[in-house]
Every structure is written in C-alpha cells, then in structure tokens.
Design brief:
The chain is α+β, with helices and mostly antiparallel strands. Helices cover about 30% and strands about 35% of the residues. It has 4 helices and 8 strands. The longest helix is centred in the N-terminal third of the chain and has 27 residues.
C-alpha cells in the first residue's frame, strides 16, 4: 500500500479511538455518587459505584457508604442507608460549612472520620500537642484546606482553614 492509501486507515483508526473514548467517558460519567437518588437500594448503588472508600455503622441499624475523591480530588460523598438498605441521604461532605460546624471539644477522631472520611494527610507541628488532619475541598472556585486539630486523646480542639496555593513552575522563570 502506498502512503496515501494508508491515510484513510489512520483517519479511521483515530475516529474509532475518539468514538471509543467518548463512549467510555459517557459510561463512566453515569456512575457518580452525586447522581444516586434517595430510595435507591444499597445493592444497586454498590453495583453502579463499586466498593466505597469506607463504611460506617449508623444508628439504628443503618450504614454510611463514603466515596472519597481524596487525595487527588476535592469531594467525598456520604450515602446514608436505613436498616432496610434504602438510600436516605446523599451529601457531598467536604464543604466549608460542614467543617465550620464540627463541635469543638466534643467530636473525636472517630466522628471526624465517619463524617469526612480519611484525611488527605496527618501532620504535627511544634505549637500543638496532637495530630492535624488535613482535608482538601473547593469553596466556589477556590481550592481550600481544612485543618482539624486533634489532641492526644483524639478530641477536636480547633479547625483552621487555609487556601491551597497553585503549583507554579518556577523553573520557567
């Protein structure tokens, strides 16, 4: 075959790859935790979304499935099911308002983890005797970090917020 005869094959192959990519995006786009509606059955949700990042028992006899996008993403979805396995609530939990409403002095590490999932990172600093759990989230278009300070007994002592700075390529300057 001549080179000009191969061009239609290459174009067809490219078109086929683009069509395949579009189909994959469309199919995977349907399986998002945010799209699950109250009343859905737990088994159906698990079939669509796959295994959650974590599960937590809820009273009386319910269960929370937590789907987290961390460490790369900015969202975590808490899907709460009743004892019969029906979805009651579906909420994106990594928000400024939810972090601001953490009851300081009352919540423990277990409460934080069952409400927000595992942190992006756990750090320590010289001026606080305990761990600092850091979560990444978006507030409007701003990238933010919530820093939940847990004392040595695992009790929340404060919650602070910082902006996540963009990663600049300083080598280009």
């Amino acid at each position: 075959m001549t080179r000009s005869a191969l061009c239609p094959l290459r174009g067809g192959r490219v078109l086929a790859l683009v069509a395949l990519w579009a189909m994959v995006v469309q199919l995977t786009g349907c399986a998002l935790p945010a799209r699950e509606q109250p009343g859905a059955l737990r088994a159906e949700v698990l079939a669509r979304l796959g295994p959650p990042s974590a599960t937590f028992a809820l009273a009386p006899g319910g269960e929370r499935l937590l789907y987290s996008e961390l460490p790369a993403g900015f969202a975590a979805y808490a899907l709460d099911f009743d004892a019969s396995g029906r979805l009651l609530r579906n909420e994106q939990v990594l928000t400024q308002a939810r972090f601001e409403n953490i009851p300081v002095g009352t919540w423990t590490a277990a409460d934080v983890q069952s409400n927000f999932g595992a942190p992006l990172r756990v750090e320590q600093v010289a001026r606080f005797d305990g761990d600092i759990w850091t979560y990444r989230f978006r507030q409007n278009a701003d990238l933010r970090l919530a820093h939940v300070h847990l004392d040595r007994q695992g009790v929340v002592r404060q919650v602070l917020f910082t902006d996540e700075l963009p990663h600049f390529d300083n080598a280009r300057d």
